[in-house]
Amino acid sequence: MSIPTSLDPQGGVAVITGAAGGIGAALALQLAARGCHLALADVNAAGLGEVAAQAAALGVTVSTQVLDMAQPEAAAAMLADVQARHGRATILVNNAGVAVGGTFEQVAADDFDWLMSINFGAVVRLTRAFLPLLGQAPAAQIVNISSIFGIIAPPGQTAYCAAKFAVRGFSESLRHELEAGASSVRMTLVHPGGVRTGIAANARLPVGGSAAEIKLHQDNWRRALRLSPEAAAARILLGIERREARVLVGNDAVAAAWVQRLFPVAYWRWVARSMARQSAR
Fold first, then answer.
1. Of 83, 168, 273, 275, which one is least surrounded by beta carbons within 10 A?
2. Active-site pick, 112, 120, 130, 160
3. Taking the model in full, what pTM does it have?
């Protein structure tokens, strides 16, 4: 069987988690503009409804589910709803994500586990649930959103990096399995750099951190979030259409990935200096 080397989203059905804002919302609207029907999920009901209404106005069929991806049963509920309302799926975008602030010693064990259950566990559960349905299409794509923090690992991000590195390893191994098995499903692994989403502002705060420390931490990271969600989504959509195995989103992601490759141990000194210069502007 010949596996298509490109994927046209028109007429397909894209399943997107974390679709109420940020990259998920931007990608949903850009897919809708290409004629792709949507099955959207998020824990934020109001935001999800707004995105769904905008997408439906573009002439595609849109279904929504208010789901907490930390719950193990969310994947099965999402699959059942997509099968009932669309009958098929051609794109799965595992985009839902959360953040927790603080060092490893400051982050509560429950918060660490909560982040892992969404940022990594939900990726695995949804992929397992949807893979058979995706495999029924002549060409289908799984899109797993990792992070540049799935390539580099800054201090104060132990939980987030653990999850995003796990997404990377899971996705790369699964990609090799799908290719070896001549599946019609392909994998696109995405590493966004600093994208202006609400994830940092909505992060759970560390236990015992002072208000001043928390504000400084948030302000520093906010300065690094420069790329618009729309620009990030456009690059991801191009990667979907080309069926690219890996997509680096943003010049900062490209630069950090190269520095990590060249200096796998000492790279953080370069990254830290670069962030310090940005913060001083």
1. 273
2. 160
3. 0.91
